[in-house]
Every structure is written in structure tokens, then in C-alpha cells.
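Agenda item 2: 1,3-dihydroxyacetonephosphate complex prediction
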Amino acid sequence: MDKSLRKPVIAGNWKMNNTPEQTKALIEQMKPLVADADCDVVLCVPYIDLYAAMEAAAGSNIKIGAENCHWAEKGAFTGEVSAQMLKAAGVPYVIIGHSERRQYFGETDVTVRNRVRAALDAGLKVILCVGEVLSERKLGITSQIVSAQTEIALAGVSEEELANVIIAYEPVWAIGTGETATPEQANEVCAIIRALIARLYGKDAADRFVIQYGGSMNDGNAAELLAQYDVDGGLIGGASLVAEKFAKIVEAASK
Ligand code: 13P
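Presented output:
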């Protein structure tokens, strides 16, 4: 197996941060710092910031994503945004199934699956998030939880469609806590996900499949995490709000 079959993807998840004006300023700061990246660079931003982000990133190597999308094309779903709307707006990426959606907004494995389906139907690239909570890790059921989340989310996704999916393994206990998974812990679960992809789609598909780690990844720990065989990038929260820190992670992924 050859890790170089996979181009790393460093994606920022801004969560509920930045106004359109702040978005423009931060992306202008980031652009020159990540211009030489030898990895894909994505920034996922609040809906309200998408246009400002795409305008600021135009002509650069930074691609823009949303942080969620609904499964229906349109209809009576107050406060939601459909995958088709994102596509029509020119947004290429979308995060689906983030643990904060699962934890605070009633997202289930089945609604995650429905959103993935809609996003792929609309032609979006999906960053699918999976990960165990602390009590599940302590029980020793991380593998079962992450495998079930992955398999349900991908139900009905063809091998061809899989090319538009990447998975972010984000242990919930490591998100926003400053407590990072060790490189070995991150790699262990990313390898479990890759083995599942191999079982579902074959070894070639698994060898090409990008799996990110997320959870307190920062400019200090990124290099070691990204050096792991099965870790092909990062989904970065807090550190993606600071241009220099995000750029250092991009640099670490480009080596
Ligand atoms: P932090 O990097 O702030 O821990 O957030 C990780 C995350 O949830 C990215 O989606």
C-alpha cells in the first residue's frame, strides 16, 4: 500500500464564527500563506459567509464548503438549506454529520445518511464526520460505533460516488478540549475505517480513500498526526480561525 495514492485534505471548520466582513479579512490573510500547498485546502464556513468566502477565495487554491445541508430539495423546513441550493450557489464542499450536529441538534445516523445522499445527488463533495464519545471509548466500543456510523452513512453510496466522499474521524472527547488523540489512537481508528471501506468497496477504493483526523489538531501536533499511515489530512476547528496556525497545518500536510 502506498500513502502517496492519496492527496491530503486540510479543511477548516469555522463552526459558528466570523461575519462576512471577518470572513473576507481572514481569507485574504490566509491566501498567500497557503498558496504553495501540496494538499487540498478547504474552508467550511457558516451559510451567511459562503458568498464572501467564495469571493475572497476566487482564483486561489482555497475551496469553500458549507457546514451542513438538508436532505430534501426544497420545502417546509424552516432554517434549513438544501444541497441543491449550495450547488446552485457554487459551493463545492459540505460537512455532514459533525458531532456537534449529532450532540446538540438531534442528528442521527439515518438523517446523516439522508443528507449524504442528497449532497451526492446534488454533486457536492462530502466531508462525513464520525467519532465516538468518551463513554464509548471507555467501554471499548469505539470500533463498533465508528464502523456503524460509517456503514449507515454510506448505505446506498456507489463506488463511483465514493470518489466524492472523504471521512473525518473526530473523537468527540478531543473536539475543542485541547485533548488530542495520540497519533497511534488516531491512526488506529482511521485504519479501522479504511478496512471497512475495503470490505464495502474493495482494496483499490480503500487505498485511494481520504480519511482525516479532527479534534484539537493544531500547528504544534499536526505533523506527527499527519505522518501516520492512515491519516490523510485534518478537519480543524479552533486553529482554522487563525491564519498562521492554519497555514502551518497546511504546510505540515504538504511535506
Ligand atoms: P477543534 O479543532 O476546535 O477541536 O475542532 C475540531 C472539529 O470539530 C472540526 O470539525
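Discussion summary: The CA atoms of residues 186 and 213 lie 7 Å apart.
Owner for follow-up: CH.
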